[in-house]
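Subject: design request, 195 residues
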């Protein structure tokens, strides 16, 4: 291996660590900063001082409180009522439902609706993409095509929350012996992850 290839490989290895770390820190920082900006005037008014970084503590407490609320019966009813209210707002419901489903798929693949990892020929014969089969079944599509179709979500790399759903004839779907989690890791890494 030449010195140039070694430098290139070292740089790519660093980049693969750097990108997810920066993305994670950015999302967390945005949440912390948002809560900090909301709490800053309240803290100044109540305590007379501002505590820098209180947004970090507040974010962690908020996440924990929401989790605790969602685990009790009254909390589940409150969450359900809030979600029903959100689902009545035209643009907000689309964004909320999409982000919620994507979050469930990434965080809890037991409840995500993804049933398995498959290969399908796309965008042309001889080229394959990794997709995730879903439990949804559209009878009208089967009735109109006369074929048993499988819904396959084909995510985009490196952001698996976006992608497209394609309906593939059942006999053209190639199941893989890979967990949904491993499939998601492969997508997020841009194909670099190893099982």
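Subject: RE: design request

Done. Sequence follows.
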């Amino acid at each position: 291996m030449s010195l140039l290839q070694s430098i290139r490989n070292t740089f790519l290895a660093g980049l693969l660590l750097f990108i997810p770390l920066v993305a994670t820190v950015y999302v967390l920082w945005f949440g912390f900063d948002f809560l900090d900006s909301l709490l800053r005037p309240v803290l100044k008014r109540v305590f007379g001082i501002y505590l820098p970084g209180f947004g970090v503590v507040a974010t962690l407490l908020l996440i924990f409180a929401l989790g605790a609320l969602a685990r009790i019966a009254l909390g589940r009813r409150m969450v359900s009522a809030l979600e029903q209210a959100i689902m009545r707002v035209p643009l907000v419901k689309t964004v909320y439902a999409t982000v919620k489903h994507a979050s469930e798929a990434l965080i809890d693949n037991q409840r995500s609706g993804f049933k398995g990892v498959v290969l399908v020929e796309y965008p042309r014969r001889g080229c394959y993409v990794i997709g995730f089969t879903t439990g949804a079944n559209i009878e009208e599509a089967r009735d109109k095509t006369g074929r048993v179709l499988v819904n396959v979500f084909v995510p985009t790399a490196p952001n698996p929350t976006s992608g497209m759903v394609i309906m593939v004839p059942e006999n053209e779907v190639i199941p893989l012996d890979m967990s949904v989690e491993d499939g998601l890791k492969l997508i997020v890494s841009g194909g670099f992850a190893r099982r």
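The CA atoms of residues 105 and 112 lie 4 Å apart.
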